[in-house]
Amino acid sequence: MKYGLPLLFLICLSTASNLRAAEPRRSAGGLHAGAATSNITPEIGGDIVGGFVPVPCTDIHDELHARCLVLDDGKSLVALVVCDLLGMHRSLCVEAKRLIEEATGIPPSHVLLSATHTHSAVNALGERVRGYQSDQPLTDYQRFVARRISDGVRRAISARRPAEIGFGSVDVPEHVFNRRWFMREGTVPSSPFGKVDRVKMNPPGGSPDLLEPAGPTDPAVSFIAVREPGGHLISIFSAYSLHYVGGVGAGQISADYFGVYCETLKRLQSAPEQDPPFVALMANGTSGDVNNINFLAPRKGLPSYEQIRKVAEDLAGKVQAALAAVEWKTEAPLAARMQELPIRWRSVEAPLLAWAQETEQKTQAAGDKNSLPAVYSGRVQRLAQASAETKAPAQVVRIGDIAIGTSPCETFAETGLEFKKRSPFKHSFMVELANGYYGYLPTPRHFELGGYETWPGTNYLEPQASVKLMDALLGMARELESPNR
Length: 485
Ligand SMILES: [Zn+2]
What we know:
Elements: H1 5-22, E1 32-39, E2 47-48, E3 55-56, E4 59-60, E5 65-72, E6 77-83, H2 90-104, E7 111-115, H3 140-158, E8 161-162, E9 164-171, E10 177-178, E11 180-183, E12 199-201, E13 210-213, E14 220-227, E15 233-240, E16 252-253, H4 256-267, E17 279-284, E18 290-291, H5 306-322, E19 334-341, H6 350-365, H7 372-383, E20 392-399, E21 402-406, E22 410-411, H8 413-422, E23 427-431, E24 440-441, H9 444-449, H10 465-481
Parallel strand pairs: 4-16, 6-7, 15-17, 21-23, 22-24
Antiparallel strand pairs: 1-5, 1-8, 2-3, 5-6, 9-14, 10-18, 11-12, 11-13, 14-15, 19-20, 20-21
Helix pairs in contact: 2-3, 4-5, 6-7, 8-10
The structure holds zinc ion.
């Protein structure tokens, strides 16, 4: 059926008025906050993507969520969202932000979307065959996640109420270990490209060949707490620089320690069944080279989920205890900046491309799909055909005297520590895997050392990317800190 012109005109009019109606009213003054969760668990039957090779999902141990916190200072709204996913393709984030802006008027720059990096989720990174593209058509699951993120933000907006805010930080060094190690000469295996690396990722635990870790860890749980004035907590947004814990059941979907931390922190509240409910969020800080394995001792086999519970319950207890030292404020000016950085993809030179083409032929002839050379020969060829621009997003969100800087990569601990040190704000921390996914982000020093995270296809961006990101974050932080300078 064809619509006549008047009907079409009416449809357009009603869309425009819906948009206006969707604009949330800014609160009358003073800080307001609301928080909500949105279930993003996939159906059983997809592929779990955290491992080197995907495994079929046969069960769901615990549900995956998009956890949402919305802050409102009477002038602007900011939405912080943490999703139980390995990572999110930039196009998924663009779509979620589009839906949020359409429904609520919050601009994309004021929405911080990040993934926890749980390794027991299904793919939201896009189809691997499409390779290294800034823009991709979305899969059904990615579209579902984008809609659920937008729903969660809308629910958080509905749950807004007057709020006080405070910052806290507690060091929990016992769960974080740098996973890149210098080893005795001749004991680091050669890379899939036949080169000798100076450091080894995830070396054998307790090996006599271990010398020392190649980088630091960041032991801090940074957190932003909001509560009803003098009363119950509304939400805690936290970030810890730990890759994930793992040790989940075979074929099971799980939010890893991130989910257990949020549930434990909720149980620790004096009124855990309040309505609207308390919502905790645990974002990933900068953990590209940091995991939960103490390499100085051989790893003990534990029952599934035991290590996850141990880490999560310890962190939740320490954050709960640290709340006692929080200084509560009734105001926190909100502002945010976001840029797509002029960072280039990692270049693939002719000899590397020739290696990849030759290796692919050899491994295919041998029926080998899963060895390191087989996997990397494909990745290198796809990287050689990357889109023209990366559009790698960087963002700084200002919440009073707190700055959150973001990276779209698995970012090394030293980058997060540098941002904390150099940011002009009283309190600063970083959230990684934000607003897109662009592989590992070693610092230039680490490119010299080599190892898994620096291999082309694990690393997607040029070796100066971490420096360019830091410059951009600090530039935006300075602008937000003194807008009139
Ligand atoms: Zn990772």
